[in-house]
Specification:
Elements: H1 2-8, H2 13-39, E1 49-55, H3 59-79, E2 84-91, E3 97-104, H4 109-113, E4 118-125, E5 133-144, E6 158-163, H5 171-175, E7 179-184, E8 189-193, H6 199-222, E9 240-245, E10 250-253, E11 259-261, H7 262-266, H8 271-278
Parallel strand pairs: 4-9
Antiparallel strand pairs: 1-3, 1-5, 2-3, 4-5, 6-7, 7-8, 9-10, 10-11
C-alpha cells in the first residue's frame, strides 16, 4: 500500500511520474536477479567468456559472413554495455575475417552467450560470385574463462611461437614479435593472442584461452550427454543453430523456431533471440 499512499499524497504530475519511474527500475532489478537465479544457475554461468568467430566453408563469402556476424555482436555488446576486448583478429585477402577472438568481461557473459555457440548459415546472392544464390557458414565457439583451473598443463606439451601482430594497435606492436601462438601438442589445440604490445601479457592471455578450450574438451570427454556442454570446440558443420536468409529478409533460429527481420537483427538487436534460448 506504500506506493498507493505515495500517489494519493502527490501534489503534481511530475512527482507522480518520478515515483513510477523509480518503481519500474526497482522491479527491473528484481526481475533480472530472479532471471539469473532461475536460468543462469550453473557453476560457470557467472564467468566471463571468450567468443571465437571462425569462417567455415564458402571461401570469400564465408569470411565476409564472419565479418557480418562479428559486427552484429559488437553492436549488441555496445547496446548492452558489455565490457569487451579484442584478443585476436586474423584477416585474409580483401581484409575479410578468417577468425576473431573476443574476451567478454561482463559478469554472466558465459551464461547469456553459451547457446550462441554453433554453426550459423548464410544464404544470399554473393557479391563475390556470379549472381546466383550462395550458401556459406561460420562457427561461433563460446568458452568460459577459468580463473582457477583444477588441472595443470605440462609445459613439455606446449609449442610456443611468436610473430609480429597483423592487426591494428600501433606501429610498435607490428615491428616486434609480441604476438603469441601456443599449440597444445597432444590435442592439437591452438590459441593466439596479439592484443597487447607485451609478449608476456599476450602469452598469459593465450594460456587462459588454452585452459578454457581444454576444460571444454575434458568435459566433453566425460559428459557427452550433458546439455551444458554441447557448445564444444569441435561443433559439427551440421549443427546449425541459425540461418540468415537475405533473399527472404529474415533470420530463422533453429532452436526456438522464431523468425526475425534480418536488417534489425544484424544491427545488433538480438537480445530477445538470446534470452529465448536461455529458458529452453
Amino acid at each position: 500500500m506504500s506506493l498507493l499512499n505515495d500517489i494519493i499524497e502527490l501534489k503534481d504530475e511530475e512527482e507522480f511520474f518520478d515515483i513510477i519511474e523509480d518503481e519500474i527500475k526497482t522491479y527491473e532489478i528484481q526481475y533480472n536477479e530472479f532471471y539469473k537465479k532461475l536460468f543462469l544457475n550453473n557453476d560457470l554461468d557467472k564467468n566471463e567468456c571468450y567468443m571465437i568467430f571462425k569462417s567455415g566453408s564458402g571461401g570469400l563469402e564465408a569470411m565476409d559472413f564472419n565479418n557480418i556476424i562479428l559486427r552484429m555482436f559488437l553492436k549488441y555488446f555496445e547496446y548492452n554495455k558489455y565490457d569487451i576486448e579484442i584478443v585476436n583478429m586474423q584477416h585474409a585477402e580483401q581484409n575479410l575475417l578468417r577468425e576473431a577472438v573476443i574476451h567478454v568481461k561482463s559478469k554472466y557473459a558465459f551464461g547469456y552467450l553459451k547457446k550462441e555457440a554453433g554453426v550459423h548459415r548464410l544464404t544470399r546472392v554473393s557479391p563475390f560470385g556470379n549472381g546466383k544464390l550462395h550458401t556459406s557458414f561460420m562457427e561461433i565457439q563460446v568458452l568460459p574463462i577459468i580463473e582457477k583451473p583444477t588441472f595443470t598443463i605440462d609445459k613439455k606439451d606446449l609449442r610456443v611461437d611468436t610473430y609480429r601482430g597483423s592487426g591494428a594497435g600501433g606501429q610498435h606492436r607490428n615491428k616486434t614479435d609480441s604476438a603469441v601462438r601456443i599449440t597444445h601438442i597432444p590435442t592439437n589445440t591452438v590459441v593466439c593472442c596479439e592484443s597487447e604490445r607485451s609478449q608476456i601479457i599476450n602469452r598469459e592471455t593465450a594460456m587462459k584461452q588454452l585452459y578454457s578450450k581444454l576444460y571444454i574438451l575434458n568435459e566433453e570427454k566425460f559428459k557427452k550427454e550433458n546439455d551444458n556442454f554441447k557448445n564444444d570446440l569441435e561443433s559439427h558443420w551440421g549443427n546449425q543453430i541459425r540461418s540468415y536468409l537475405f533473399n527472404n529478409n529474415l533470420v530463422k533460429d533453429h532452436m526456438t523456431n522464431k523468425e526475425y527481420d534480418i536488417n534489425t537483427f544484424l544491427n545488433g538487436n538480438i537480445d530477445e533471440a538470446i534470452k529465448s534460448k536461455i529458458i529452453l
